[in-house]
Hints:
Elements: H1 18-26, H2 42-52, E1 58-62, E2 67-70, H3 72-75, H4 91-94, H5 99-110, E3 116-122, E4 125-127, E5 130-132, E6 135-144, E7 152-161, H6 163-185, E8 189-194, E9 199-203, H7 205-211, H8 221-224, H9 233-243, E10 247-254, E11 262-272, E12 278-287, H10 289-333, H11 338-368, E13 376-380, H12 381-391, H13 393-398, E14 402-406, E15 413-417, H14 418-435, E16 441-449, E17 452-459, H15 493-503, E18 507-511, E19 519-526, E20 548-552, H16 556-568, E21 572-576, H17 579-589, E22 593-596, H18 605-615, E23 620-625, H19 630-639, E24 643-646, H20 651-655
Parallel strand pairs: 14-16, 20-21, 20-22, 22-23, 23-24
Antiparallel strand pairs: 1-2, 1-7, 3-6, 4-5, 6-7, 8-9, 8-12, 10-11, 11-12, 13-15, 16-17, 17-19, 18-19
Amino acid sequence: xxxxxxxxxxxxxxxxxxxxxxxxxxxxxxxxxxxxxxxxxxxxxxxxxxxxxxxxxxxxxxxxxxxxxxxxxxxxxxxxxxxxxxxxxxxxxxxxxxxxxxxxxxxxxxxxxxxxxxxxxxxxxxxxxxxxxxxxxxxxxxxxxxxxxxxxxxxxxxxxxxxxxxxxxxxxxxxxxxxxxxxxxxxxxxxxxxxxxxxxxxxxxxxxxxxxxxxxxxxxxxxxxxxxxxxxxxxxxxxxxxxxxxxxxxxxxxxxxxxxxxxxxxxxxxxxxxxxxxxxxxxxxxxxxxxxxxxxxxxxxxxxxxxxxxxxxxxxxxxxxxxxxxxxxxxxxxxxxxxxxxxxxxxxxxxxxxxxxxxxxxxxxxxxxxxxxxxxxxxxxxxxxxxxxxxxxxxxxxxxxxxxxxxxxxxxxxxxxxxxxxxxxxxxxxxxxxxxxxxxxxxxxxxxxxxxxxxxxxxxxxxxxxxxxxxxxxxxxxxxxxxxxxxxxxxxxxxxxxxxxxxxxxxxxxxxxxxxxxxxxxxxxxxxxxxxxxxxxxxxxxxxxxxxxxxxxxxxxxxxxxxxxxxxxxxxxxxxxxxxxxxxxxxxxxxxxxxxxxxxxxxxxxxxxxxxxxxxxxxxxxxxxxxxxxxxxxxxxxxxxxxxxxxxxxxxxxxxxxxxxxxxxxxx
Length: 668
């Protein structure tokens, strides 16, 4: 063959073609069945001209032996095993290792049955000493030649190696299958929405099961779930897509078709492209319907429990009221009979204990639901302590216990709720009384440490085991003991103390050296500066005046015994048992004080109080009732009551407020 510079016009079809063009021109074709290129048939020349003048990988198989030609672009797909030796070689000889794949395809073309097309066809070959899985997209097209048998002189192969593309797609498919598998195994629901129309690209099984539809991929949210538009979910998707910010929903109601409403915790997470533009939204979440309904059931159970406790307290307070009144009658009218005096004291102590237990039960319920409202005011802590000690005088005397109170040299003031602080101090003292044996001692010490007032209550009682010290303030917890050490109680008194003290910004701690070594409780409360005047009138003496009283209560025993007690105090008492009777007597009696029950059978006490208040703004209206929760007190104030007492009322507490007309509602 001649060099490129001297190729004559008859061999111009072999010009150019880069390295493979040069190799083709230099090849000794006369040693093959094809003979001299000058004599090659025109279809072969035309095809070779195309092969050498294109940058696309091509090869030609020609003649009965399928002699092989290829260009530079194709040569780059061959290893050293075949390049450049494959030029001029028989196709069968060159590609024997893959003949099982390509042989039938070649025969189809040679038989005149038309071209073949193969996309991403796996054709494993040995290349550079390594057997490789190589993928091709290629076609075998016939080169027509009338002089050849069957009219097909050869095959033009146009091909592209797609190995990297196929392997990348396989890796992507594997990764996609992996994350889809993870999504399908996820405990919650997930889906991927594409574009501003929110088309479903993927949804896991939990999502499919939740919405109750299968064929959703490629469809929009509006097409699949039109009912969510009016529920605000599309608006939320629009906001997330436009703002590119995540949205979180908690226990959000979701109604799907005719199903019962669901509740879901969910996240709308925007997805972004390389330029930071939002491309879609990842939706993930959990069906929390069972949790929400369980919580609702618990709230309903709590509500019913509160209603039950309130009704229980009311029903228990009603019979306690006449019992307390009888104990007062016994102690006031039979001083000459020590035995009856003792019976009266016993009744009074037991009624006080039962009342204390009921109050604790109701308090712990209100505290756990944050329904306690404190009325803060400056308080003299010494006077609070005196009140708490006096409330337990009978208990100290009964157990012959020695009680001492070491007060601070200067008045100590705190800011707190009078009733609740006395309750806290009394609860700790009552605890000391219960767990200190007959003849034991209890000491109270009031000190100041920095910015805090410290009340330390120490007893010589049974003590606290070390493993119980950290639990002594827990609800319903009591130290275990033998029958002879059992002191009863519900295990809620100290828990109330801790919660109430915390609500006052303070703390309470317990200390004990062990069993039979006594215990000490330390209450720490923030100090305040002493007010200009001691506003705490806790110990102020009150002057009693004779009052004209209308007493209204449908519990005849409670009404009659209280009326007798008030009469013994010198007051003029008219007793009625119905609301209608009260309304009939109000103008006849013209009372200065009205003691009014709330739960009357004909008209409730709130309505009666409103009527009386409208007629006379000056009368003192006092609710004496078994209903003592915060809502009851609020309603009483709105109805026009000046004071609110829960049964069984202590007589001294009642008569001490007869002269108060400032309208402030208080709970005693």
